[in-house]
Design goal:
CATH superfamily of the largest domain: Vaccinia Virus protein VP39
Bound molecules: S-adenosylmethionine
Number of helices: 6
Number of domains: 2
Shape: globular
Strand content: 15-25%
CATH architecture of the largest domain: 3-Layer(aba) Sandwich
Helix content: 25-40%
Largest sheet: 4 strands, mixed
Number of strands: 6
CATH topology of the largest domain: Rossmann fold
Strand order of the largest sheet: 3-4-6-5
Distance between the termini: 30 Å
Radius of gyration: 15 Å
């Protein structure tokens, strides 16, 4: 959903939507835009491919990553993964959204460590950009958003 919406909002861009889950990707409803593609892939591996191919990003959205809430699962969170510093080599703007404040605050701290400065705030989606965002919003949950950019 977010991939197709971003493609419509940015007709000049090629938007690549990534999820490792085939069943998640199968929920995609085609909206008719041609400037996007969907990949079943592990995001961190894809970042490595982009770095090796020296392909920079204009913008990057990390939308509702799995929270992995147990302390023992820290390294499974996006910002706890060994590949997280690679994001700095891809450049551009980055936005991360989560319904968990702790996760968002951790992400913002980790982002600072790799040269990604930005702001963390709550927001009301209007309209929701992803299926999970819609679900969380309908349940009345507070949504968190980190928006930052790498200086080139
Ligand atoms: C909470 S869902 C959010 C799905 C969608 N982004 C949305 O907002 O509606 C988290 C998704 O992240 C995917 N995922 C988790 N770890 C991943 C990784 N390392 N690379 C790619 N996708 C991953 C899962 O398959 C799952 O579909």
């Amino acid at each position: 959903m977010s991939t197709a919406l971003l493609a419509a909002q940015h007709p000049e861009a090629l938007v690549v939507g990534i999820d490792q889950s085939a069943s998640r990707l199968a929920k995609h409803q085609v909206l008719g835009h041609q400037n996007y593609l969907l990949l079943q892939a592990e995001a961190e591996s894809f970042w490595r491919c982009l770095v090796e191919a020296e392909i920079p990003l204009a913008a990057h959205w990390v939308l509702y990553p799995n929270p992995w809430p147990k302390a023992s699962q820290l390294r499974r969170r996006v910002h706890g993964h060994g590949a997280f510093p690679l994001l700095a080599r891809l450049g551009g703007q980055l936005e991360m959204r989560s319904n968990w404040q702790v996760y968002a605050a951790e992400f913002a701290q980790a982002a600072e460590l790799i040269g990604l400065s930005g702001t963390l705030d709550t927001f009301t989606p209007d309209p929701p950009q992803t299926l999970f965002e819609r679900k969380y919003h309908e349940r009345g949950q507070t949504l968190w958003r980190f928006q930052g950019s790498f200086s080139r």
